[in-house]
Write a structure and sequence with these properties.
This protein is α+β, with helices and mostly antiparallel strands. The chain contains 13 helices and 25 strands.
Length: 567
Amino acid sequence: AQTKPGKAKTPAKPKARAVSQNTSFADSYTLGPGDRLRVDIFNVPEYSGEFYVLGDGAINLPVVGAIPIQGLTVQRASSLLTSYFSRYVKRPIVTISVLAPRPVQFAIAGEVTRSGSYTVPFTGDNRKFPTISQAIQLAGGTTQTANLRQVQVRRAATGRVISVNIFDVLQRGNTAQDISLRDGDTIYIARAEGVNTADRLRLAGSNLANQDATVKVAILGEVGKPGTYTLKGDTAGTAGRVTPPTLTEAIKIAGGSTASADLTRIRVRRNTRTGSGQVLPINLLNLLRAGDFGQDIILQDGDTILLPTATDVNSANSALVAASNLGPQAITPPRVVVVGEVNRPGTYTVTGSANTTNNNTQLAGTVALPTVTNAIQTAAGIKPTADIRQIQLIRTTRAGEQKISLNLFKLIQQGDTSQDIILQEGDRIFIPAAQNPNSQDVDLVASSTLSPTSIRVNVIGEAGAGAGGTREVPANTTLNQAILLAGGFNNVRANKNEVDFIRLNPNGTVTKRLIKLNFAKGIDSETNPRLQNNDTIVIGRNNLTRIGDGFSTILSPFNGLLNLIRF
């Protein structure tokens, strides 16, 4: 080539003869302010040298002056410079090398931990552009609501929007979706509309998730200790990778759910990076029943968890929850109030028992859960006049007082264990009196565990061997059995055909009737009734004894006179 001083001529058609240090880099890299370039014009060293792309996007070269090259690739910039130098050099061969690329600057927004603008410098011989996944890592990872299936990249140079599926990289290793960024690119990660736990778990186990697994959440409603908690992830068995905390871990740390919690309607309120809130419905009963781990979502910083109060208390569900690690973490016997038609109304600390009627399977080492029937037994059982069809349980919940109607007659007649609900601290049980008690119902209730385990009856009169008096007998003892337990009859003096039966009624009246005895008969309300607490049986004298006792009464004054005469 040879210089041609003098009048400049019209630039010739650009010829792309540029050669770069890295073809792939040169093909994709666009020049901009801050790039340090090496411009070589073959056989013209005085025009060659190192130059910077200035702030206005131009490069200032000898002879030709400032030439705008911002936004051009290396090859296109070489062609442009060739056209300019052709005015002064015959058949110029221009070579551009990028000695020090300017840092790649991009912006990332949406569902990432730290959105904003980031700069990635090219260091050493590194000529690789940062990828979307690297940009996400620089931004601290994604949130749990990120939609990685539709990540959008807007190119500053062209305004083109590219949609890529980064989740395909995690799921199938399709690195073609993890495209390289360019200077000025903007990345936007939208919020996912639904919750796919399989996707969330796969994301949590990748390097795109937020590695700082410490989250601060608020848990409200039917838990033992509502409040704000800071949860830390678990690193056990994950080769140093942190497993983020989940919903069940938050419930356990908050003292577990109460007996009033409705685990089918849990709500998780979540703030997204876009500023709009998201409410996630959760049904943890599906987790306990069928092992649906999709319900145990991964928590995010700032989540608010609400466990609502159940509108209908289901004993089977309550027992299932109480036996799991989601139930109360500190199982202490609750203090409850039992009033109404029980033998000893009052406040009691109720514990479960081995013969509890709920359908909760007791495992080795676990504590039996106290139920309504346990509370009634603790209060010495119900009275015969109790209406167990209309029992009311008043419970104080986080949402206020809750009234629960129970029909224990279904329990003893049909085995409906859903009526025998699990108790919690502060419950109040009211057992009303029956208006028109049915004798068959009374007998059925009297033979159940709702009645007292023992009662006190009085057997007076001509009992055998002087064994009469007040006696404690098993509940549901009949009149015939009580007489025999009191020693039977005095063989000489007793009337073995009939007894007087006296009952103290709850309304304050006394009932007295004569009962004809028949020890061959079973339970019969007329001839052999079941006894109630404080019933009295009077065994009378036979006719011969009454006559003898009468003569003794008449002759008793003369006996004294005869004794005086004898003296």
